[in-house]
Amino acid sequence: MSIKGKHIGAAITGSFCTFDKLFEELQKLADAGAHIHPIFSDSAGTINSRFGNAEDFIKKIQEICGRPPILSIPEAEPIGPGNLLDALILFPCTGNTIAKLANGITDTPALMAAKAHLRNNKPLLISISTNDALGMNMKNIGLLINAKNIYFVPFGQDNPKAKPNSMIAHTELLIPSLEAALQGRQYQPVIC
Predict the structure, then answer these.
(1) Is the overall model pTM greater than 0.90, yes or no?
(2) What's the pLDDT tens digit per position in 115-152?
(3) Which of 118, 146, 167, 172 has the fewest CB atoms within 10 Å, i.e. the most exposed one?
(4) Distance (Å, rounded) from C-alpha 157 to C-alpha 161?
């Protein structure tokens, strides 16, 4: 399935170390003809870190997507009733966001977008980036893997010796994972 012409939400959370990959993959989506609707979590939209400034991230995303990002819960809520998206990607998806999503908490624009989007029985694709995937968050990942309309970009350990519980998505598989999710399938293998 082609993503050309599809309306794809990109809900960005605060795994700042992966933002370079985020920009690269969103540019590929844009080049493939997807209409990208960016959404920032509160952290991603406001925190300046050693990886860069929030204002610069917002500007870069706006350049790639051709539209300003959604930055508040009230702005994200209409995604559901308006049936605005064909798919939504949580990218990168932190352990904090995974835990909240698995437990029905919608206290950021990214989580409100996910909740609003899922009400339409359309795919939510998760691209994880968390230091506790094989620790406290494993139960939440397990819940989400078994949930209707939720799919994952394949992921694996990124540094087993220094960070044995950490896992990160293979973002180079974002587009084929999205194409599979739009067809109601999980791209395989999930863990690699």
Answers:
(1) yes
(2) 999 999 999 999 999 999 999 999 999 999 999 999 99
(3) 146
(4) 10
